[in-house]
Amino acid sequence: MIMALRKSFSVLLQGVKQSQKVLSTSLHRNYSNESSFSVKPFDLHKLEQGPNSTVTCTKDDAIKYYTQMQVIRRMEPKADQLYKQKVIRGFCHLYDGQEACCVGIEASLTPEDDVITAYRAHGWTYIRGVPVSKVLAELFGRKLGCAKGKGGSMHMYHHNFYGGNGIVGAQVPLGAGIAFAHKYNNTKSVCLTLYGDGAANQGQLFEAFNMAQLWKLPCVFVCENNRYGMGTSDVRAAACADYYTRGDYIPGIRVDGQDVLAVREATKYAKEHAVNQGPIVLELVTYRYHGHSMSDPGISYRPRSEVKEVRQNLDPISSFSDKMMEAGFVTKQEVKAIETQVKQHIEEETAKALESPEPNFKELPSNIYVTSTPLSVRSCNAFTTLSHAANV
Q: What is the distance between the alpha carbons of residues 321 and 324, in angstroms, rounded to a whole number?
């Protein structure tokens, strides 16, 4: 199993090294505001032509993507720290290592496009517009949280962001339903419906695929393949681990999920396809640095050397900073300055979250029912009757 995984990582590493070649002839930062880059060629299913493997990026966009990935990278270890200090309770699934997926996808979306994902949702919540302080406050169960402290790690929401869903694979048919609304209302927008390789064998996925293709729904199904579903590698869990082909009658693309520009280009292509022709599947080959959740050390089923190798050779952030410097967008000192600013920002946002109080008890049943009938809510000591408890 380990040999098979190492072989797959070796292939990915070779592609990433090739993608690091900058095609621009500009050598000096002062003269470089846009450059072209090569990305690893895309694997295609039921498509004669896919996204372009030569992509352009402006200096401003590159700095934006790098900063966003750095924010997520710093936010998640902060959550790790506070979980161990028991500020965060319950489930907590971290996203560090996969930053290029959400940042690259969001770069090709508009605020009118929708996103729905699984329980590894912190990075997605941030990239969809929720400040770090509100993400962390939600983890802390505080009033400032984006779900008023009642959702926690797995249930975060924002405008056109439908969570954060705790049931494995259950968000996929919901995403198809959101895409149906776009089709019905002729909005020309799409729904990005994300799931992990661990959910890829769920029957409800294939039911959603069937309905989406039958009705030509503008849905982009995205498998964030981080190579392990809980503690089981993808090659041990699936008879076919080529998840981009699993839609059968739906076109698919396999993407280097560690390259933010490759993800951006694939999403742009997939969105156009979904709006004009119907559903498409993207498989983003990525990797998570932490275990499945905070209760999983992440090293009982994979060697430390594997995690170290990915960090050193396939990291989405360090590889992108190398590209930016080679393109002449930034200097090494400017990269360090961004890192310093992000670190300070995370500390300030953490302080805001910690200052927020817990929500009032009357908030407990809010956003559940629209009713003027008093609700009896079971607490630790008694039943408490709340009148007009629903806030909508």
A: 5
| Residue type for position 356 | S
User: How large is the greatest C-alpha to C-alpha distance in the chain, in angstroms?
Assistant: 72
| Residue 99: per-residue pLDDT | 98
Annotate 145-198 with DSSP letters as a single string. STTTTSS-TT---BTTB-----STTTHHHHHHHHHHHHHHHT----EEEEEEGG
pLDDT at 379: 62
- Cα gap 135→150, rounded to integer Å: 12
Contact residues for 348 (Cβ-Cβ < 8 A; gap 6+)? none
User: What is the DSSP pairing of strand 375-378 with strand 219-225?
Assistant: unpaired
Q: What is the pLDDT of residue 373?
A: 72
**What's the rounded Cα separation, in Å, for the pair 216 and 279?**
6
Structure tokens that stand for 48 in this block: 């004669």
The segments of the chain whose pLDDT lies below 50 read 1-6, 9, 13, 15-30, 388-392
Residue 5: what pLDDT?
Answer: 47
Return the closest-CA partner of residue 157 out of 175, 143, 145. Answer: 145
What stretch of H or E contains 67? Answer: helix 59-84
How far is residue 115's CA from residue 198's CA, in Å, rounded to a whole number? Answer: 19
Which pLDDT score is estimated for 18? 45
Kindly report the backbone phi and psi dihedral angles of residue 75, in degrees, each rounded to the nearest multiple of 5, phi listed first: -65, -40
* Type of residue found at 238: A
pLDDT in tens, 13-32: 454 444 433 333 333 344 57
40 closest CA partner among 221, 317, 265: 265
Q: Comparing C-alpha atoms, which of 41, 76, 121, 80 is closest to residue 285?
A: 41
- CA torsion, points 255, 258, 260, 262, in degrees to nearest 10? -30
Q: How far apart are CA 384 and CA 6, in angstroms?
A: 57
